[in-house]
Specification:
Layout (H helix, E strand, L loop, with lengths): L1 H11 L3 E2 L6 E2 L5 H11 L22 H5 L7 E2 L2 E2 L4 H11 L5 H8 L11 E4 L4 H7 L3 H13 L7 E3 L11 H8 L3 E3 L7 E9 L3 H12 L4 E9 L2
């Protein structure tokens, strides 16, 4: 009996290490670091369709680009901007293979409700197999599987990236669109489904536009986007 009481006390008082500051904490992020992250990176509730902060300050207005060329997806759900210190966690996770950073993401997302109650499934924006082989994992797929039990929605790997697109950073908008055109193909039926695209970071939104257009052309009823962070 004493043995089980000891185990209970150990479990009750188990400490972790904050993934940002390294201090002992009861969660993957200590309260000061989580407060700092929220203050620095939290996006306002009102966003443009492409996930940028509402240019009209809460009037649900579209940004200039979306006015000229509305994206095929209905809206973008995102809580955090891609900025310090969240970018540090994502970079360590995505580019340095530190998969334990998922504990921080899970901690941040644990209290976030499903943003679209009508969604039938979560659909990751897949990486090309060469990039997946180089990294050892597909971050969008892992995030989708992290969200699935929280939001009680299945993961539907409907998209396959059939071309290894170059990195988008530093490219013009025209170059990005040309680079992504025809990048995805459908590998699972999606007709009649309402799908929530999942990715880690939205930069230009080009991948989400192309992925959503591919799904809608294959018969999906509606496509929305969820990303962990958005560059602004």
């Amino acid at each position: 009996m004493k043995h089980f009481q000891s185990l209970h006390l150990i479990k009750k008082h188990t400490f972790s290490i904050c993934l940002l500051c390294g201090r002992r904490a009861r969660a993957p992020l200590c309260p000061p670091c989580q407060d700092f992250l929220n203050q620095r990176c939290r996006l306002p509730a009102s966003l443009c369709r492409c996930g940028l902060p509402d240019p009209a300050g809460g009037c649900a207005a579209l940004c200039g680009r979306c006015l000229k060329q509305p994206p095929p997806f209905t809206t973008t759900h995102c809580d955090w901007r891609y900025d310090f210190p969240l970018d540090r966690l994502i970079t360590a996770y995505k580019h340095h293979g530190q998969l334990y950073q998922e504990r921080a993401f899970a901690h941040l997302l644990a209290q976030r409700p499903l943003p679209w109650a009508q969604a039938d499934a979560l659909c990751p924006i897949s990486a090309h197999w060469r990039r997946r082989l180089w990294r050892g994992f597909d971050q969008a797929e892992r995030l989708a599987h992290l969200l699935a039990p929280l939001w009680r929605r299945p993961v539907l790997p409907a998209l396959r990236r059939q071309r290894a697109t170059a990195h988008q950073q530093g490219s013009s908008r025209r170059q990005r669109l040309r680079n992504l055109h025809g990048a995805f193909t459908i590998q699972t039926p999606v007709r009649g489904l309402r799908l929530l695209l999942v990715d880690d970071v939205m930069t230009s939104g080009g991948s989400a536009r192309e992925a959503a257009a591919t799904l809608l052309a294959a018969g999906a009823t509606e496509v929305r986007v969820w990303v962990l962070s958005r560059t602004c």
